[in-house]
Amino acid sequence: MLKPVVTFYERFLRRRIPSILMAYLTAVVPLTAILFFFFNQARILFRDLPSVSQRVSEVTNRWMFLLDQKFNLDPETSSDWVSENMMGVVDIPLELARESFESGTVVLANAVLIVLITYFMLLYRTSFKNYLLSQASPKNRKSLEKLFLKLQSLTKRYMIGQGIIILILGILIGSGLWLIGVPYAYFWGFLAGFLEIIPYLGTSVGGILPFVYMLMVSDSLWQPWAVIGLYILVQQIEGNLISPNVMGPSIKINPLFIILGLFLGGIMWGIAGMILALPVLAISKEVFRTFEVTEPFSYILEDGLSKKSDIFLEHYDHVKHRIMYLFFDERDD
C-alpha cells in the first residue's frame, strides 16, 4: 500500500531505503494527528465517566419511579434492585473499555512488527516480482505484469476510497449527532467512519456506542432513538450512493464471503485480520479472474451471485475451467 509513495520519492531520491523512510514519515504524520484526536477525545470521555455513572443512576431511578407509579410496584424494592444490578451493568462496558486501553502495549508491539515486515517487502519488492515472473512462461509474463499493475491500482483505489468514505461519514454522522445534541459528536462520528473499515460488525458497533451513551446521559428518549435513525439513514446513503461511486464495482464482494473472511481473519489475526478481510478478498477475486482454471471462482466471490447462477454452465462448462483438472487428468466425454 506504501509502494506508490515509495515510487514517488524514488524519482527524486534515486535510492530505495531513503525513499522507504520518507514514505513511512509521510504516513506517520497524518496517522499521528488522527491518533492524537481520538486519544484526546477518549481521555476527556473517560475523565467524565464517574459523572456518567452518577447520571445513569439518576436517570434509572427516575424511570423506576415512573414505573412504580404506573404498575404499583414497591418503591423500596425497585430502588434496591436498581442499586444492586443496574450500576453493575454500567460498570461492565466501562471496565472493558479501560482494559482495552491497557492492552495498548500489545497493539504497539504488533504495529512495530507490521512496520518491519512492510519495510523488507518494500525493500525486496523487485526481487519478489522477478521471481514470480520467472515462474511464468515468456508468453505469459506480460499478462502477469498487467495483473501486478491491476492489483496495485486496486489497492491504491481501496486506500484512497476508504479515506474519502471515512471523511464523508465522519462529517455526516458527526454533524448529525451535533444537531441531535450528542456530546463529543465528531469523536463518535469519525469513530464510526473508521469502524466502517470492518464491514457489518464495525458499522453496527459504531452506531451502538453513541446510542448506549445517550441512553445513559440523556433526559429524553428521543435523542438515543434519533441516533439510531441517523445511523440507519447514513448507512443507506453510504451503501447505495457513496461506496458504489467512490470504490467502484471491483471492491463489491459476496456478503457470504465477507462474513467468512471476517470470521477467519478475526481468528488468525484479530482486529487486523478483520480489517484486511475485504481488500484480501478483492485482490483474490482479481487474481482468480486472471487464470482460466480459477476464473469461474471469481464470480463466486462477486456480489450479485444469485443473478449470475447460469453463467457457470453457459460459459465455463469446459475442462480448462475445472479446478479438478489441476489434480486429475479429466477429459470431456
Automatic annotation (TrEMBL):
Pfam family, any one: AI-2E_transport
Protein keywords: Cell membrane, Membrane, Transmembrane, Transmembrane helix, Transport
GO cellular component, one term: plasma membrane
Coiled coil: none
Membrane topology: Multi-pass membrane protein
Matching InterPro entries: AI-2E-like
Listed transmembrane segments: 21-39, 104-124, 158-180, 186-213, 220-237, 257-281
Family recorded in the similarity comment: Belongs to the autoinducer-2 exporter (AI-2E) (TC 2.A.86) family.
PANTHER family, sorted: PERMEASE PERM-RELATED (PTHR21716:SF53), TRANSMEMBRANE PROTEIN (PTHR21716)
The protein's name in its UniProt record: Putative PurR-regulated permease PerM
